[in-house]
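Morning. Coffee machine broken again, so started the prediction first thing and wrote up yesterday's gels while waiting. Chain of 210 residues, entered below exactly as on the submission form.
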Amino acid sequence: MHSSDRRVDATALKALAHPLRVDIIDNLAMGGPATASQLADRLGESSGATSYHLRQLARHGFIEEDAERGTARERWWRMVPGGLTLSPTDLRDDPGAHEAALLVTRQLSDQRARHVDAFLRRGEAEFGEAWVNASRLMTARTRLTQEELLEIGDRIEQVIMDVVGPLRDREDPDGARTVALQFNMFPVVGVDGPGPAADPASSLGDGGAK
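Came back before lunch.
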């Protein structure tokens, strides 16, 4: 967990567990501050629906008003600085929170797949060959113990945060584009047969949603 990350408790997690709210979070994270009307256009929803869900996300501390952009007629919203981390120890005694965590992580996974698909289909036409050549879609296969998996995940996460962290709050340089840096690491289902029974709450892992 990075020092600037927010640990999401069960109450906030249940508030986030709505497909449109997760989509709003993703749009604000990827595209920057926006109004309810802009988000409605992007997501194919009514501005009334996005306005309602924006207020709920703000109530639970996921987003905040961007006062520098807002006007008397229209409010702008932005992500609260820092990442989000799910803690399995906060969910063990709350089946509702566990179900909410599964919904949120599935939705986030679907979003990642949609971003990759859009890049593969339209990346070169939209950004050009140089941007495509500078990008990476990487999978490395190996065999690990549970302890090794945890250690490698922690090390790679720290490297990513060391590289990306200093770039988050700077002024955008000329030619900058929004870039999604993703890292996936998990035991491959169906290869080695069933493993020992696991605590359902621990299946998310620390940092399950970022």
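Confidence is low (pLDDT under 50) at residues 197-210. Going to sketch it on the whiteboard this afternoon.
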